[in-house]
Fold:
Amino acid sequence: MANRQVDPITLSVVRGVLETTQREMTLALEKTARSSVFNLAHDYSTALFNHTPEMILQGQDIPIHLGSLIPAMKSVANFFEGDIHEGDLILHNDPAYGGSHIIDTCMYYPVFYEGELVFWTVCKGHLTDIGGPVPAGYNPEAKEIFAEGLRIPPIKLWDKGVPRDDIMNMLLTNMRARRDQEGDFNALIGACQVGARNLTALMDKYGKDVVQECIAELLEMANAHMNGLISQVPDGTYSGTAILEDAGHGFGDFDITATVTIKGASCHIEIESPPQIPYFINSYEGNSYSGVYLGLMMFAQLPPPYNEGLYRNVTVDMGKKGTLCNAQSPAPHMNCTTTPMETLTDAVRLAFEQAAPDKVSASWGHANGCNIAGWDSRHDEEYVTMVLASIISGAGATASQDGWHACGPECCFGALTSGDIEMLEHSYPIIIHEYGLMEDSGGAGKFRGGSGTRWAVEPLDTDMTLVTFGEGRRIPAMGAAGAKSEMVHKKVGRLEITRGGETQIITDNVIETIKPGEIAANLNPGGGGFGNPFERDPLKVVEDVRNGLVSIEGARLDYGVVIADADTLSIDEAATVAARAAA
Structure:
């Protein structure tokens, strides 16, 4: 550690102000945004960087955003090196410059103090539309990135404090539901300004040098936490492979492999993935960092502070350019923040679990969602939105508890919210017929995986375009420590469209037209279980049956618990012992 003498009370106060600043930025986004993706689902993230730029604080927001902010911030700062001024505001979404996917747009606001660049405040959010041929951006028919929407390389929206209204107008003119996009852009800008105001006040109170010394200490603190953890892992090379299922692209299933090499307090992670394909699941390098870091943090489970110091002794090789996890233009990519990121996360987590089996945990349900768009005759305008409620899946179980219900998917790790049904129906011309937990969706285990959800919608008076994305419709979330499910078909996602009394089940990513009177139900997978399901207390299984989480058939097939009476839910003890012994 450097020879710094930081007063611990001052350090604590500075740390508290940084954390409060980040939370105030997210609150500003929630309270001022226009779209339901922002103000209901909270699909946004905030972070603070120093001038280096090094991330000095990440919000407890969307993991799949936060990891990619690190290379993206460096790319943006490098692009404008020598041309960064007080009052500038930079916009960016391009994966070629470290972005995740182009629907996630990011604002970068340099914070100057006494004429010197000291910090950056950064806000990233999922817009409801980014132009292109398909509403909401997810185009399963895209063969290249140019068929997905607007690529925005680093560009100044404000130049030395002067707004570039021509640039903003050009962007908004190419997006659907302009009012929503403009409102969300303004929310991102306002949140950056809130962060800058607080950081300036902090330096006014303590002085720039003291604040920077405190931040350096916090970076070293995070580094020490990670080094301490890695040092406990035996030196060696460990590997994990996860399967990415074919969701309609026709190329078959893919393996993604992570190889982790531990040496002392250093960690090197190497990713191997197949060549990129003309389908929207390719991930560019910046986005893939998010998947790798999430897998690492699922294993690490470290206390705060959460900043770039965590990764000082962690190196990553994403593999060859032109591969699924290290794509290059013109690869289509819009689905990349869920697919293949959740599979990449699983591979990294599995590799670490080979190194330290005592820290094993099950996989969360993978995203399997939908976007909707159409004409809102109530306001005589187009509507478009990503339905975050449609990707809420179950969490994985651990060695000490069942998985949480309805809090996934893995890429968001509990940070998304689905919002009130009434607010969604107020915002869009739809009726939501159902939103609830799915029976038998949680992975079986001594500790059960969390349940996934079913979300069913009908358009009011005009046709609605529905676009599906994701996977997890054939392969359930991975269990751990011997967990295994016999009833697999209830634990995977799917789309069910009911027309004229008949229901069609769809497991590919598709673009569908839903008419008034027709109902589209999106079903999300549950989380993986932990441990041998035949070791689960039969009384807990009965309680799950009573609560609608497990069916009587599921109790027998998945847990070897035979229920004798459907009314009283009494257990046939002899049959249960026999069923479990026969396994």
Q: What stands out?
A: The mean pLDDT is 95. Residues 361-533 form one domain. The chain has three domains: 8-224, 361-533, 537-582. DSSP finds twelve helices and 20 strands in the chain.
